Amino acid sequence: MSDQCDLCLLGLIILSSLLTGTSGADDDHVFISSGVDVRLSCNKTLSDCKSTTWIYSNTFRHSATVELITLGIKKDTERHERLSLESDCSLNIKNVTEEDYGVYDCLQFVNGQKQGTDARVYLHVLHVSVSPSSSSSSSSQTEISPGRSVTLFCQLDSYFRLSCDYLVRSEGVELLWVNQAGVDLKTDSRYQISSSSSSDQYHCNITLTTTLLNEDNNREWRCQLTHRNQLQTSVTYTVKYSAPVSSTTLTPVSRSNSEKTSSRTTATAPTQGS
After folding, report:
1. Which phi and psi (to 5°) does residue 240 adopt?
2. N or C end: fewer C-beta atoms under 10 angstroms in the chain?
């Protein structure tokens, strides 16, 4: 083992979600972090779900709408194993990914005739990535240590007709980087915080850049999303310093807990000999 005592960074990303928020009588906005399970409500008016159809729209991924459930039967092979219907015809999506954002419509038909009121749900997905990234495309490891600059990217993916500007100005959506106490990190000159929308205007971004310090052990930085001043979901990045090693690596390992509708991505720093 090398005599040099280098500190290791253990990055812990915890994703938690509160599934609330309504934009109108029949349209819901659901904000959630990637890696968790979500339940989308349907306006059930019939006795069973054999009349229920769920369709999905996202023109960034599909040129037309996709039928997920047709008259109670799963049709979407791409996400077949992650989809299920509740007894009230709500749609369950397990282990939500960044690609699941978009608009979901629940419709009911009897003998080809539409029944009741359609339910429309806008699903927005929040996720975080970290830089620097590995120069090797075959490796998921990132060398990182105190004294080096790190940038955390927090992005909200939304339906193509709801621009970032619209969500901020009309829906009251806000992204913030905060510390453990919930204080906005923009008030601390140590951090460089910048907000922007993507080139297509439909993805809201907020980045945090700072230089890691030895005293950052167990420090948390949280990207949180509020909708009309109500916390909806958040992603927490926790710094942990482990036993001395000769080099430092950051390796993402995905875990999920569907019962608590939360998931965890853990970065471990293995001990290496010289």
Report:
1. -135, 135
2. C
Overall pTM surpassing 0.90 (yes/no): no
Say which residue, 191 or 129, is predicted with more confidence: 191
Q: Report how far apart, in Å, the C-alpha atoms of 190 and of each of 121, 186, 210 are.
A: 39, 9, 7
Does residue 19 carry a pLDDT above 80? Answer: no
At 98, phi and psi to the nearest 5? -60, -25
Lowest mean per-residue pLDDT among 60-69, 213-222, 251-260? 251-260
> Where is pLDDT greater, at 119 or 136?
119
Helices (H), 141-182: 164-169
Contact in structure between 40 and 31 (CB atoms under 8 Å):
no
Q: How far apart are CA 194 and CA 178, in angstroms?
A: 13
> How far is Cα 126 from Cα 149, in angstroms, rounded to an integer?
23
CB of 32 closer than 8 Å to CB of 126:
yes
CB 162 within 8 A of CB 122: yes
| 27-33 and 113-131 strand pairing | parallel
pLDDT at 53: 93
- Tokens 């799963």, residue located: 74
d(CA 25, CA 271): 55
Structure tokens at 5: 């005592």
